[in-house]
Amino acid sequence: RLKELPTTLFTPVQYRNKLPTTDTFDYIVVGSSPSGCVIANRLTEDNQTTVLVLEAGMEDNLLTDVPALNPFMTLTDWSWNYDTQPTGDTCLGMTHERCPWPSGKGPGGGTILNAMIWTRGNRLDYDAWAKLGNPGWSYDELLPYFTRSENTRIGQLSGSKYHGRSGPLNIEYPPFRTPLSQEYINAGRAFGFREIDYNDPRTHIGFARIQASMKEGERHTAATAFLKPILWRPNLSISLNSQVTKILIEPSTRIAYGVRYINGPKEYEVHARKEVIVAAGAFGSPHLLMNSGIGHAEHLKSVGINPIADLPVGDNLQEHPGMHGLTFLVNKGVSIRLRQILENVVPAAATYLAKSKGILTSLGCEVVSYVRTKYANFTTPSPTVPDIELLFVSSGMNSDNGLLLRKSFGISDELYDYTYKPYNDRDAFMIWPMLLYPRSRGTVRLKDNNPLSKPIIEHGFFKEDIDLKTLVEAIKLAVMLSKTPPLQKFGAQLIKTPFPTCRFIPFGTDDYWECAVRTMSTQFHHQSGTCSMGTVVDERLRVHGILGLRVADCSIMPLIPGAHTQAPAYMIGEKAADLIMEDEFQNNVIR
C-alpha cells in the first residue's frame, strides 16, 4: 500500500464508469446507497439480468477510506450538504439557526461519510413494523437478512448465532482506542451496567465497544463490499455523476418505464424492462418521487407539478435527535487532539498505510451505552428496551481549536468563541445523548419544480415535549458518569461555560439543559420514514398505484428503529432483492 500511495491518494476507483451503451435494462437502481448496492449485487448474480446503477456523486478514493476523517467528509462534495429550516426554538447555536444534515453522495451513499457504527436496534422495533400490517418484517423474519450481509471478525462474538460470518461486509472492532474508553465502560459498571453485545437480541441495556463496518482498519463502504468485487460482471453497469431528475411514468397505465437523468451538461433517458428501484435515501427518494408526480397532490400542484399518485410522500420524517457538545476536560494526555495528529502525521500515516493501525483508524466514537430514563415506560414497549443511547467520543469540541469539527456540526462562531475557545487544545472527551424513539415528526417538501433544487427539510425536533425531557435526563446521567472513580482518574470536569443563548439560566438545572438541547440540537444522519411502508409503499416495497416502481432504503421505515440506520439499510436491500426476485419468478409463472 505504501507503494500505491503516490498514484492512488486522489485517484478514483475504476468503476468502468461511463454512460450506458444501451438505453434499456431489466432494472434501474437509482442511488448507490447501502440498499442500492446490495440490490445491484444480488440481482446481477443471475447473469441474464441486466442492472444499471445511477449515482449522482463522484468517485471515492483513498481519503474516503480513512476512518478518522469521517467528521470532515460531511464538509466535502461527498455530501449533499442539506440543512434544516429555522424554527426559532431549535438549532439556536448553529449558523443561521439551521442544523446541517449531511447525506452521503457517492458510491456507497451514507457509508462514505458515516461513523461506521453497526447496530441493529431492538427486536421489538421490527416486530412493531409487522404489527402495523407489514407481514414479513418481524425481527425473526429479518434476522437472516441482517446476517447475510455480515462478515463479523470479532473473536468474542465467534460463537454467537446472531452474527453473520460469510457476507461481503466486514464488521470488526476499530483497532485504535484511547485509555478513556475502557474507563468509560468501567464507569458504567459503577452504575450497575454490564458490558454487552448490543446486537444480541437477548440483551440491549448496557455498555459496549463499537462494532464497526471496517476491514483491517479501513472504512468498508457498501460500494467496497458489494460493487467493487463484481465490477467484472458484464450485466452490471454503473454511471457516476448521473443525477436522476424524473421517473418516467406512462399516465394512462401508471407504469414506471424508465428515468431521466443528467450527466454533465446533457440530459438522458434510459428505460427499464421490469422495474425502477429508488434507493436514494430518506431525502433523495421522496424528492425524486415528488418531482415525478408522486406525493401530496395539493403540494405538487402548488409548485407546478402534475400529480400522478396522491400519496403522503415526505411525511413521517424521523431521526434520532440529540445534543453535541457536552464536553469534559481531563488532566492527562489520553484523548485525541488535532495538534497531536499533526505533530505526528508522518508516523501516523505510515502506521496506517503499512499496518492499518494507529490513530487514523479511530472512529472518534469508541463506546456506546444503552440506558433507560424515567420516561422510558411511556416511550418503549418493554422494560428491556432502552430509550437513550450515549455515545462516548474520545475528543472534545475544543480538540481541534475550532478548525473543522465544529464546522461539520454547523456551530456558529459566536457560540464556539464564547463556550469552547477558552479551552482550545485541551485534552477532553464528549458524551453525546441520542434519543432512540422520538415522538416528534418532520417533513420533506419541494422548494419548486426544479429537480436540482434541494428539498425543504422541516426536522420537527421537540414538537413533543417528552422528547426534550428525555434528553435532559440523559444529559444528567452523562454528567453523573463523569463523576465516577474510573473517569476521575483523569480528573474529568464538565466545561461549565454556558452557551450564550442560555447564560441567564442557572447552569445545570433542567431548564438550562433544555435550553442547551435547543441550542446544540443535532441529528445523527439517521433520517428515515419519508416513503413509509403502509402509506407510500406496500410490504413488498411497491409504490401504491404505480406499477414497476419500488422504493428500498431507510425512507420505507414506518417507525425508526433504536439503531444507527446503516445496518437496517443493508437489511432492507437484502430483503428487497429477495422480494424483487420472488415477484419476477411469480410473473414468469403467470406468463
Automatic annotation (TrEMBL):
<protein>
    <submittedName>
        <fullName>Glucose dehydrogenase [acceptor]</fullName>
    </submittedName>
</protein>
<dbReference type="Pfam" id="PF00732">
    <property type="entry name" value="GMC_oxred_N"/>
</dbReference>
<dbReference type="GO" id="GO:0016614">
    <property type="term" value="F:oxidoreductase activity, acting on CH-OH group of donors"/>
</dbReference>
<dbReference type="InterPro" id="IPR012132">
    <property type="entry name" value="GMC_OxRdtase"/>
</dbReference>
<feature type="active site" description="Proton donor">
    <location>
        <position position="526"/>
    </location>
</feature>
<dbReference type="InterPro" id="IPR000172">
    <property type="entry name" value="GMC_OxRdtase_N"/>
</dbReference>
<keyword id="KW-0274">FAD</keyword>
<feature type="domain" description="Glucose-methanol-choline oxidoreductase N-terminal">
    <location>
        <begin position="281"/>
        <end position="295"/>
    </location>
</feature>
<feature type="binding site">
    <location>
        <position position="244"/>
    </location>
    <ligand>
        <name>FAD</name>
    </ligand>
</feature>
<dbReference type="InterPro" id="IPR007867">
    <property type="entry name" value="GMC_OxRtase_C"/>
</dbReference>
<dbReference type="GO" id="GO:0050660">
    <property type="term" value="F:flavin adenine dinucleotide binding"/>
</dbReference>
<comment type="similarity">
    <text>Belongs to the GMC oxidoreductase family.</text>
</comment>
<keyword id="KW-0285">Flavoprotein</keyword>
<dbReference type="InterPro" id="IPR036188">
    <property type="entry name" value="FAD/NAD-bd_sf"/>
</dbReference>
<dbReference type="Pfam" id="PF05199">
    <property type="entry name" value="GMC_oxred_C"/>
</dbReference>
<feature type="active site" description="Proton acceptor">
    <location>
        <position position="564"/>
    </location>
</feature>
